Amino acid sequence: AQSVTQLDSQVPVFEEAPVELRCNYSSSVSVYLFWYVQYPNQGLQLLLKYLSGSTLVKGINGFEAEFNKSQTSFHLRKPSVHISDTAEYFCAVSEDSGYSTLTFGKGTMLLVSP
Amino acid sequence: DGGITQSPKYLFRKEGQNVTLSCEQNLNHDAMYWYRQDPGQGLRLIYYSQIVNDFQKGDIAEGYSVSREKKESFPLTVTSAQKNPTAFYLCASHIRGTGTEAFFGQGTRLTVV
Fold first, then answer.
1. Chain-wide mean pLDDT for chain B?
2. Contact predicate B79/B64, CB 8 Å
3. pLDDT band, very low/low/confident/very high, at B98 (cuts 50, 70, 90)
4. Please, which pLDDT band fits residue B72 given cuts at 50, 70 and 90?
């Protein structure tokens, strides 16, 4: 069975600083990986996804993530954050096996302060 | 515009009452899901359906029921058997198959008093 671990429940950072949100996964088969963002009292919005090909994936709002198969990681990065990036971020995995469901991590709250 | 609509956005119910949350999509997606979100626990899968008239239990199905009579609709009933029903509920859908991302509704916040 697949699982996702987001190592940090909260990441405080100052505006314009770089940030990395960590995500590790576990699976016995090939996987697809996703990062979603959630603003308060709203649904989730897709930031980016890794299906195959280049291990560096670029998404919306200046975010990018790198798939590392040997370390089973899919960390999310942004070189310079804005106040408006304050939100909760979820990493999710889906196995390349039949009709697999999405499994989510517990989320990382990104807190950007001026 | 295509999307997923959850209603209502806020719902209050008395303890012991059943309540049904609505989820409708016009994206022509085969698969639909219900997740429960509690602070610090991420999203936990309640039920999912890959095709009309068929659905499977997720990780926390106890105290919940669903139906999938139409492709567009996947209502969730929170029954009186659910011990802690107060939570934020999210509905999602995607094209059936692997590697496709899910699209989410705006959620329903259920408060049981």
1. 92
2. yes
3. low
4. very high
* A2: CB partners within 8 A, 6+ apart: A25, A26, A27, A31, A93, A94, A95, A100, A103
- Alpha carbon of B78 to those of A33, A105, B30, B88: distances in Å? 30, 24, 23, 12
pLDDT digits (tens, 9 = 90+) for A73-97: 999 999 999 999 999 999 999 887 6
Contact at CB, A96 and B99, closer than 8 angstroms? yes
**The pair of three-digit structure tokens given for residue A66, joined into one six-digit string:** 């790198």
Report the C-alpha gap between B9 and B71 in whole angstroms.
22
Residue among B42, B92, B96 minimizing CB distance to A105: B42
Best CA proximity match to A22, nearest among A80, A68, A84:
A68
Contacts of B58 in chain A (CB under 8 A): 101
- Residue B35 with chain A: CB contacts under 8 Å: 104
End-to-end CA distance of chain B: 36
